[in-house]
Design a protein that fits this description.
CATH superfamily of the largest domain: Vaccinia Virus protein VP39
Strand order of the largest sheet: 8-7-6-9-10-11-12-18-19-20
Order of helices and strands: HHEEHEEEHEHEHEEHEEEEHEEEEHEEE
Largest sheet: 10 strands, mixed
CATH architecture of the largest domain: 3-Layer(aba) Sandwich
Bound molecules: S-adenosylmethionine
Helix content: 25-40%
CATH topology of the largest domain: Rossmann fold
Distance between the termini: 50 Å
CATH class of the largest domain: Alpha Beta
């Protein structure tokens, strides 16, 4: 039977192989900090429900040391407290896939003795890796509920780290240990909260997932500038993080059902949104629009809704209602994106000016510039 140590070494190798270049310090952190103490139970998705898997056991250990996300909380119910039959709802906390964690930690470039603030403590595993990289005395991690932070603090202590683990809204009042030279968020935001910029020292780094309701989330790496602004680029890897929520609110927005409205054909099918680079781009073009699986897009601000259905070998059908045909906007974004040679996330920049304006920028090979204000 595979031991925990063998499984951990295999995961560290997998994480190293999966990334283009990874600092040896990050790989070493994955070798030194075990994942299993942080996830004594997690959920697996089964028949429309989340069913708890509890350790120890061979199946549990295999899943813990796979490069996969492990859901640990559903609508506020922690996997350790869940009934054996499971629960229905939306995932509200998880342990991120290790390969993605590694790339974010690499981008964060944590130094020994550094001062780090993590927003989204979750299981505490990422905080454990941060403690290994910076030293526990410099690490502060926060999450929304007492249940999450108490468990994370306890697990961190079990593996020998005692960072500050606080119950706090990561977009609210800053933790007492600030300012920091590294800030990492493990929940997604539409815009970088002002408090993260204020709490980041000049020359410091912020790594954060920028969410996108059309499915194309991406992680940005920003450097804090002397004028109070920040600038940087997006990482290559797609990153669909759960959103940063207002305290106590775990509800997902409700979407209306498919519309009964105008019907037309389109050569651009719903599957274009499966391309992560395009879904990030189109999410910038349609910032308020929300996607529901099954090809329904909805703009809560003006009530426009569109449903797209693909048919093998035939044009897709588009049913739109409300003041705007949202699919027309996707079609035109698709044409522009292809004309620009399918820009990937890492070709795009994010600039946060000192007055708070946040702009994603893209410069085409012919010098033409496109900008989206977040
Ligand atoms: C992907 S999980 C974090 C994974 C974690 N870093 C780990 O290693 O297990 C995202 C976390 O963000 C937290 N979160 C969401 N909104 C938040 C907020 N406003 N303030 C602090 N944490 C928040 C969620 O409760 C959740 O635990």
């Amino acid at each position: 039977m595979t031991t925990e140590i063998e499984a951990r070494i295999r995961l560290a190798r997998e994480v190293e192989r999966g990334a283009s270049v990874l600092s040896s310090r990050v790989v070493e952190a994955f070798l030194n900090v075990p994942r299993h103490p942080f996830v004594p139970a997690f959920y697996r998705s089964e028949g429309g429900k989340y069913v708890p898997t509890r350790g120890p056991g061979a199946e549990w250990l295999r899943a813990v040391y796979a490069d996969d996300v492990l859901v640990t909380e559903v609508d506020g119910v922690h996997a350790e407290d869940a009934p054996d039959g499971g629960v229905a709802g939306d995932a509200t906390s998880s342990s991120t896939a290790p390969g993605l964690m590694a790339e974010m930690l690499d981008a964060l470039d944590v130094r020994p003795g550094g001062r780090v603030w993590e927003i989204g403590a979750g299981t505490g595993y990422n905080a454990g890796l941060l403690c290994h990289l910076a030293g526990a005395g410099g690490v502060t991690t926060v999450d929304r509920t007492a249940r999450l932070v108490d468990a994370a603090r306890e697990r961190l202590r079990e593996v020998g780290f005692e960072p500050a683990v606080l119950r706090a809204d990561g977009a609210g009042a800053p933790p007492p240990a600030g300012p920091f030279d590294r800030i990492i968020a493990t929940c997604a935001v539409r815009r970088v909260p002002r408090v993260w910029l204020e709490q980041c020292m000049t020359g410091g780094v912020i790594v954060a997932p920028i969410g996108n309701a059309l499915g194309g989330g991406a992680v940005v790496r920003l450097t804090k500038l002397p004028d109070g602004g920040a600038a940087g680029r997006f990482l290559h890897r797609p990153a669909a993080f759960m959103p940063l929520r207002a305290d106590g609110n775990t509800a997902m927005p409700d979407l209306p059902g498919p519309p009964a409205g105008r019907c037309r054909a389109s050569v651009v099918g719903a599957r274009v949104l499966d391309d992560h680079a395009f879904s990030f781009w189109v999410g910038l073009c349609l910032p308020r629009t929300v996607l529901r699986g099954g090809g329904t897009l909805h703009d809560p601000a003006d009530g426009s809704t569109v449903h797209v259905e693909d048919h093998p070998g035939r044009p897709s059908t588009v049913t739109a209602s409300g003041p705007r045909d949202l699919w027309q906007l996707v079609e035109s974004a698709w044409i522009t994106w292809r004309r620009h040679h399918r820009p990937r996330r890492e070709w795009l920049t994010l600039t946060v000016s000192a007055d708070g304006t946040q702009t994603v920028g893209f410069t085409a090979p012919d010098g033409g510039a496109t900008a989206w204000v977040l």
